[in-house]
Amino acid sequence: MFLYPFNQKNGSPYPSQKAFESVLQKESVGHFGFNASNLCWHGGVHVSHNNAPWLKDESPLQAIADGVVVACRISDTYQHSRFEGQTLDYSSDFCLIQHTVANPKQSEETFTFYALYMHLAPLCSPHREVSEHPRYRLRTSQSAKILEVTGESVSLDKGTIIEATNEEIVKQNGYAFKPFTVIRTSSGQWVEKTVWLAVEKDGPPSDIRRRFLGDAEQYQALLHDNKAWIEPDLWQPPRSLKRGSRVKALSLEPVRSGDYLMHAYKLLDSEETVWFVTGKYESSSSFFDTYADSYQLPNWLLTKVIARTRTEGLCGRSDPKNNTQGELEAGAVAFHLPKDTLLRFDKTQDCSLQKLNGKMRLMARCQLDPTTPVKNSSGQLAREVWVCVEDEFIEVVQADTVALNSLHCFGTRSSLVISGGDAIGYLGRYDVANAEENKPPVTVRHQVHFELFSNEKPPQFFIDMYLGEADKENPYFVLSDISGCDGFLDLDEPSPFFQQLSAHTGKQGTSGFDILRNLMDWNSEKTVIAQHESEWAVKSSEKAFLPKLVEKVNKPRFTALIEHEKERIDNMIWLPEVSKLGLSNNVWNWWPIHYVESTDDVNDVYLVIMDEDISIEDFAQQTYHSKDKTVIDHILRTNPHLKRSFHQIVAGMPMVVSPYTYSHSGEADALSFADKLMTEFLTLNDEQKAWYGKNSALVNHTALMLPPSESGGIGWNDVVVGSTAAIASYQIIHDSFNNRLEQFAQFMDEANKELQYVDKANLKSHPKYKAYRQELKLLEQDLKGLFKQYWKPSYLKELQVPSINELFNIGNRQLYRTADFAESFSAINTAKVFKDAMKTSRMLGLAGDTAFLLGARNNIMNMWDSCDTNTLTEDCEKAFIKNGTSLVVNYQVGTSIMTYAVSLAPSSMGLSLVIGIGGTMLWGYYGGELTDSIGDVVEYMVFDLTIEDVKNKIKEFL
Q1: pLDDT digits over 72-108, tens only?
Q2: Alpha helices in 573-639 (DSSP H)
Q3: Which superkingdom does the taxonomy of this entry point to (predicted)?
Q4: Angle, helix 616-624 to helix 629-638, in steps of 10 degrees
Q5: Could you tell me the fold of the domain covering 206-282?
Q6: What are the residue boundaries of the structural domains of the chain, listed by start?
Q7: How far is the CA of 426 from the CAs of 65, 183, 300, 827, in angstroms?
Q8: Which end of the chain has less Cβ packing within 10 Å, N or C?
Q9: For residues 247 and 138, what is the distance between their CA atoms, to the nearest angstrom?
Q10: Peptide bond preceding 5: is omega within 30 degrees of 0, i.e. cis?
């Protein structure tokens, strides 16, 4: 439910409360409960460049839970103060978020508390600034063009800040180039210059040759009148060719002209060379986000927004309604908005979190631009609709920020909604003046003060929820006696408040210096829940201890320092200006880092093929044994393709499973594979998706093991690649398979060269042909021996990965370790293989059909080899007789095995499917010995059995 106020440098959540708190220890000042640097009560913790330097500009502090912004102060420059002739920069900017939580055991009981982010970076250089167009930061160094796409190339350093422009995209050589203005670079070069960066790449062209070319053995004929060009240039005038014109494809390299691909052909009647349009580039893929990240202001700062929809068919809904839990439920769908529909909304007005498909989503009442009218099926024109306005669904075109350089109080019913994990801001500068001798007068710091507080004493349900149930040996200490305490630890006369704080530590001593020593530890007040005057409540003139300090120290430099600090205090307080929030000057504070119940994490990166429709929350529970928001956010981050299914997990869909407590190097590969699988998966209809989800293992391995469908056939290199990939996908060290198949491929090449001119009559008696037959048998024996080694039941059991929290025991879900998956697919086109797998899903209606294909693999290869490699008519016929017979037997037995396994699946919790898979594979490889023997008998009877042989056999029998 709660998040930490910031993530690790790599963007992933901290693995545990202990790991997060270890970061807090790296800052020597600003600990919770007591700030040793000024001897004062401290209601929050300091996050600074000392313990989290990446929060200066790379990663933001974030909201710890859903809530609303109720007050803020944001400037476009730093505040300045003077001390001993030097100027000090500091930030008085802040964001105050109101959170409300309900008692899980009694929902009508709620508790409201506030999260304060103080000293945020203002909107000025070198931070994020208000800009006319979106800004981005380069994640890697990038080559760019200076003058559109024809100018010289320059290199932009990693970290360069660029801003989009209004200029049009230019296409060249299959790439789309977009212009940007350089805002900031590490070297200072190219600032304010326009550069052009490649942002999109065209996909493969569609093939339209079958529309106008017929097939013949020696040539192709035009199916209808068609245009042709003398040169591959569509700007040149074409000529017209009549239907029936005979042409033959030439081996010249195809040429792109505009959005079209052209191939060269010879006109057989005139021997002329002409060029036809044979394909069109209709799709492109963006890769801009592979090297650039958004460098925008946090969304909560944007109020009046003009945006366009990113997706086709985004729902426009009616007004929301309250459900029985007191939550807002999104209204019914009233309209479907086309992509690029313009929306206008004000986040300070009609904006709220609404429940949609089991998840709270940020919704806004939007006005539709009249220039892009939207109608429903009845012809009704949309004027205002509620739309999900999260980043994945809309792109901000223009926005106003909250008014700068002033304090805003939006009230307790604010519509400025925040979701847990939303960016709040970055570390602001907070230079520190110093009056100590032999030290520089100014220390430059970047920091944010993070604090949680409430008006009311936190109820027990919240304490248990946020801090965890108290340790019996170290219970929570609730302190509300603030009489006589002004927040300062007077070492000569410590107040009862500080005496009680010190006593709670269990350490000895009651003097001021004893108390100081006892409170120095960074976590000495971790179990304290205390009421105290807020440091943001009263002006310096009301802090009685300040003049006492000046009088006690009585040094001019110290007096100047106190005057400097009094000016800052007066500029930073804000509580008196947010009176409509009803906050008291005396607030309750507690340890601001939430307790996280231990969860089960995985130890590697996996690809999972889902076998059922399931919610994200249930998937999190099954996989990590937790529905914590940190886990949910991790699943969403590592499965961005979920956006394409509207965050619905369905059977057959790929899912990435990776450690949520740390960043794993295998994630990038897994995300890439999952995206490719998802693209193919979405081409299936609902019935095919469900079938694929249940039979994905068989289908995927069928695609790997059968000849590639687009190659026009199979050569031995395909066999090597396909077999190697299939074997490696089962985590088998496949060198022995690879080497053996390569040896045979080399032998085949040598045999073909020697036998290609041998006539049919002398072929069988040729020594090389006999050697070939012998080598083939040895290969079959070797491969079957290797398969026996790895397909025994004990090895099948070892394929189950126990560290994944029993994932394999949930139905028939297929899981691949990404490292092995990457190795298996290193030699082949991943997208193409899974496209074949999806095609198999479309064609097959029964699991037995898949088993048939697996069992038939050797027969198919044998037939192809006989009919293509040898090109011998008799051998080809024999191969079809023998292998055709074997196929029939294989099909019948394989179908029986798998049908029986599927029928038992519900009662066996999917175990029969594992056995069925193993059974069909074993039958496919070893049952072939029996079916091949049957095939040999039939082949012999058809081709070699003579009348004399029959007579002799009869005589022997009699």
Answers
A1: 999 999 999 999 999 999 999 999 999 999 998 887 8
A2: 616-624, 629-638
A3: Bacteria
A4: 100
A5: SH3 type barrels. (2.30.30)
A6: 17-122+425-590, 135-202, 206-282, 298-403, 597-731+799-830
A7: 18, 19, 13, 45
A8: C
A9: 50
A10: no
